[in-house]
Amino acid sequence: MIIPKLAFRNLIGNGAKTWLNALVLSFSFVAIIWGQSLFEGMDREMSKVTIDQEAGGGQYWAGAYDPYDPATIDDAPAAIPADLAADAAAGRAAPILIVSATIYPKGRMFPALLKGVDPDQAVLKLPFDRLLGGDGEIPGLIGARTAKSTGLAKGDTVTVRWRDASGTFDAADVVVVDVFQTQVQTVDSGLIWVPLETLQAMTGRPGRATVVTVPVGPAPRSYPGWGFQGYDVLLKDIKSFVQAKSLGFSIFYVTLMALALLAIFNTQILSIWHRRREIGMLIALGMPRGRVIALFTLEGALLSILAAAVGAVYGLPLLIYMSKHGWVLPAGQADSFGLALDKALYPAYSTGLVFGTILLVLAATTIVSFLPTRKIVTLKPTDALKGKWS
Amino acid sequence: MENSVLIRTVNLTKIYPSGEQPITALRDVNLVFQAGEFAGLVGPSGSGKTTLLNIVGSLDVPTSGSVEVLGEKIETLSHKKAARLRNRHIGFIFQTFNLLPVYTVYENVEFPLLLLGMTAAARRKAVRDALAWVGLSDREHSRPAQLSGGQSQRVAIARAVVKKPDLVLADEPTANLDADNSHHILHTMEDINRDLGTTFLFSTHDAKVIAHLRRKITLVDGRVTADEARTT
Ligand SMILES: Nc1ncnc2c1ncn2[C@@H]1O[C@H](COP(=O)(O)OP(=O)(O)OP(=O)(O)O)[C@@H](O)[C@H]1O
Ligand SMILES: [Mg+2]
């Protein structure tokens, strides 16, 4: 028990130097926790809107459907299983038919996907009810990104060409009934939403769908020819996106941390040099070298605990403020993130994040405190007492 | 007085490999000290007094010859065993640097007891006693920087005797003390020597110390030139 007691005494005895080191180290704590919490917040926020607008509680995919392989799209649609069709009629499922198409806005040509959805569906939180009514024309709903890239606006008419189930080309005009804003790129970019029954009729695929989205809650069932996709698949892009972003950001705090560790390393070297007579004294008084090393190492480790406390003093209010008011992204930043991301980021703190960070910094501090102490072993007590440094 | 050998040096030689010209600090020193002695090394500056005390205290090793302290051979002692010998049996008073600057007076004196793993209550009593011996009871909470040279020396003395060691090695213990303090300290050490049988080995130039010695060993140029006992 004597080592912790002495380490504590030394830290207190070192006064201002101790506090300065703790302060520098605390910046690393706060930066790591702040940075990671932003990404955790980003992950949560993006997952939430994606669940609301696209993933629901999961999706049944027609067997051949592979969103990453355009060649599968026109072959994939399959008859909606009776149970799911009944669920859809009761508002507990949202079948979506996907057909590849070419659109000709203002004389130009774009590949696009037509997505048929029931305007009355109650699973996804997108304004599909705009597709209701219409007088004879085919109503289409597009997101703001598509509107921007194609130059289409509310009220515009666009010619759409597609292949029907038998492979024959057909074309029709679609009227853009509305443009909606969304943070979820994948329900917007390069696609036009149309009423499900209209698309089924247009393409000769009655009763068919490519994807059936179900609400959060019920356990997945199995239907022959359909496969259930959970969040591991549906949110995979978000996870890997956040991971990539946070990896980039971590370079920032790895640098910060390295600086802090270098400061500690230096302080330890200096303090061992500065206190060589003291060390000689400790050894002369019968303290075994191993315990002197343990003492100095523990001093470093205690420093990081002190730093955690110091960091909490200014970091906690900062982090609490952030989680209330969010971190407002500079104008334009939000959209350049590409995926579902709001204008302000709300950090999220998990106990894993906080304790993980503390453990990480503690371990790193202990290691850099230990390294210079090996010098102690080579000190001759008689020389050390005289202030010699061999 | 019981007749047990505490320290025995046999042909002790210490050579410092100092650049071109190695320095022979001790040559063929043969000395025996019984438990309970109150002895001192005298001699001109550079004659090897500190060197001898350091080797006896297991802080350094002989170049040749052998030194036995409390049954342990210094020249073959491991770091760990040397540390244990110093911790359990030897109290040091150094010529120059003595106190741990970040600790208070109380904490400095307490330190050897912490290493010994004494209980808090036993430590407190021993520290208070030792500080009373050296007349510094009222400075418990001072830091070394706030003490005079003489006061620091007295704290060092308290620390050397607080654990009631078998052997106290005192290198110029009165160097910074005035006559009154010197006599007071010496009387205290004589009391400890008499009451506890603690062996004292000094190195000194100080006539006041020499007057109290019961055995005076003169070193010149690393050699023992005289070894006189005083009968009281
Ligand atoms: N670490 C060392 N390296 C080289 N030479 C040393 C070392 N320590 C002591 N010496 C030399 O050994 C000799 C004896 O030194 P020592 O310190 O034992 O003398 P001393 O009798 O204690 O002198 P003083 O009365 O001045 O304290 C001196 O010539 C000194 O220069
Ligand atoms: Mg000397």
Q: Give helix and strand order of chain B, one letter per element, not per position.
A: EEEHEEHEHHHEHEHEE
**Spatial strand arrangement across the major sheet of chain B:** 6-7-8-3-9-10
Helix content of chain B: 25-40%
Mind telling me the CATH superfamily name of chain B? P-loop containing nucleotide triphosphate hydrolases
Beta content of chain B:
25-35%
- Extended strand count of chain A: 13
Small-molecule binders: adenosine-5'-triphosphate, magnesium ion
Determine the N-to-C terminus distance of chain A: 31 Å
Instruction: State the secondary-structure class of chain A.
Output: alpha+beta
Count of domain modules of chain A: 2
Shape of chain B: globular
Percent of residues in helices of chain A comes to 40-55%
Straight-line distance between termini of chain B: 14 Å
Write up what this structure looks like.
The complex is a heterodimer of chains A (390) and B (232). Chain A has two domains: 199 residues, no CATH class; 172 residues, no CATH class. Chain A is 52% helix and 17% strand. Chain A is built from twelve helices and 13 strands. The longest helix of chain A has 40 residues. The two termini of chain A are 31 Å apart. Chain B is globular. Chain B has 232 residues and is α/β, with parallel strands linked by helices. Chain B has a single domain, classed as P-loop containing nucleotide triphosphate hydrolases (Rossmann fold), CATH 3.40.50. The interface between A and B is medium-sized, with 27 and 30 residues. The site of adenosine-5'-triphosphate (ATP) has 13 residues of chain B, from strand 2 and helix 1.
Keywords:
heterodimer; A: alpha+beta; 2 domains; two-stranded antiparallel sheet; 52% helix; elongated; B: 232 residues; Rossmann fold; four-stranded antiparallel beta sheet; globular; binds adenosine-5'-triphosphate; binds magnesium ion
